[in-house]
Request: fold
Amino acid sequence: MEQTLQNTAEEKAFVEKQFNAMLDIYLHSNHRKNEELVREAFAFARAAHQGVRRRSGEPYILHPIAVATIVADEIGLGSTSICAALLHDVVEDTDYTVEDIEMRFGKKIAQIVDGLTKISGGVFGEQASKQAENFRKLLLTMSEDIRVVLIKMADRLHNMRTLASMPKAKQLKIAGETQYIYAPLANRLGLYAIKTELEDLSFKYEHPDKYEELSSRVAETKEDREKLFTMFAKPISEKLDSLGLKYEIHARVKSVYSIWRKMQNKNIPFEEVFDLLALRIVFTPEDIKDEKKICWEIYSAVTDLYKPHPDRIRDWVSTPRANGYEALHVTVMGPLGQWVEVQIRSQRMNDIAEKGFAAHWKYKTGEQDDSELEKWLQTIKDLLENPEQNAIDFLDTFKLNLFASEIFVFTPSGDIKTMPQGSTVLDFAFALHTDMGVQCIGAKVNHRLQPLSYVLSSGDQVEILTSKKQSPLATWIDMVKTAKAKSKIRNLFKKEYKSYTIKGENELKALLKKHGQDLSADLLSRMMEHYGTEKDEDLYYKIGKAEVKIDELPKLFFKEKAQSRWMRFWSLNIFSSNKKTDDAEIQVTDETLRTAECCSPIPGDDVICFIDEDGKYVVHKRQCPVAMRLKSNYGDRIVSAVWKNEERLSYPATISIKGMDEKGVLSKILDIISNEHSINMSKINLETKDNIFEGEITLYIHDVEDLNNLCLNILKVNGMKSVQRIEK
Ligand code: MN
Reply:
């Protein structure tokens, strides 16, 4: 932002026009109208930001207007939120105070603006502790008034839409933060459309080339898709018309980011992302009570015409997802033999899917809202009421909840509880009630006796068994997955836990000193990853309790393994995050660069660099869990990197293969590897059982593309079930 001369008349008219467009959306909504207040907020914000411009050169006020437009249009909120959105940067960027806002616009709007001002610094601050504290602030304000975080989402979305005017290093930082915190949070809040756009925009700035490539491929196939859509939808329309339903059918294309993620996860080319086209049927029932029935009527009409894929029916009508999403999804075989996903929703479900929380309120019927979303907010409130000593711990604990995908578990009386995937019997007991957790001795899962550590699956019916004589153990912490159970157990053992933690930390420090090593962030992350602890204190605790044998640490972690030869022949384009040297490429040498042992990236992999304590660049795969942790805790020391200068040298990679043990299969595979691809093998390990063979082959390969081609060719052999690179 910089000060400039007065705005021109043309600009003034444009600002006016943008505001009126926003006002128009608001006046056409179902909200109670408070036009005067909205106009006042606009006038106040415009005067406050007068003469200030954004980096892109446009008048600053256009930003608050854009945020208010998203708030009104895409999230569907009312005048309080619209005013707060218009005023959201006033306290932060001008001389006005929260008291000024309160005097003019009342307590509620002032509180929201105050919340937004408090969390205006990025979630990833300069130091790990500061960013964790910022994140905690975000959650605190969110639990006080959910509108704070909804407006924050709108603010972030507009900043992402206008990110192009930022310098490259800043783009990467903001995009990374968006990907890491805001998109999952938007998903959790049920803001599906916003989540998708945030992901796509982050992807665009993190991988501009791939984004371009995939977007143009999607555009190229547009015509074919439209033809297919017409051909596919026509019979469905006829059928639905004959049923006398009021509905609309839309074609939907997968987002670029979700196409890319699928290609990465499944290691497949663009052509094989099969459900590129999705169809959405949105109907308006005469009576809201008939919603569910009509969903299944439409399902039946569609599957009369097209054959459904048996594994791809998702019934989120009977059991909504934890973020409130409701719909019936089915994937069917289209007329040209391709799979098409059909999403069936009522208008109400559609609103909820698009606008999340705000729509929930709109359709709220009873006085008591016990939606999954409300319950989730309640768990955040619980966590905040029971704070841990350390903000970073809190962030780690909370993130567990944010990213976990969910399962549904039933109580004996048939109530449904949503739990994160991987939850155990003990988690479930704590989710029901703290006392139940403390006294839990096991459970009957689907009427069979199971221990505390038993991992639950979706659909399980669980009856918790308790005993007053039960006394909890500190090791229970390793048996639970949910943040709630972890913090409850930790509280029970605070004293004992603390003393072992201190003991372990001292022992580790003494050991490091003896070996002349520093406790670097990288070393700590590798150890935590290895021993499966989520927090450094848990690691110290395990060392203190001698659950981790301290003697084995030097062998496992201290010695840096010899570098592969290929490093000399490859180089990385690294983008500096240093503000003074925006976009500068850094020259790295063998001495200043090394690959991380945790994920062993190879040239062509999607990578990032972490700058360690000695100023060395450590290359990690982007999806590497250690890198994820470093990214969240040391955001400023992560830099983007791209491979360049390809040389034909080889280095090891391992693939796993699985298939039917038919005659000649193995010799065919080995033939493909050594003759067709001329690739050397260093190790083969195969086992055969019940006509299925399974095993691993370690090869010397050139790059990812070679490896992918090889995998595809092996997969073509009759009887092969799967071929995958083993991610380390
Ligand atoms: Mn802003």
Q: What stands out?
A: Residues 63, 88-89, 155 surround manganese (II) ion (CB under 6 Å). The chain has a mean pLDDT of 80.
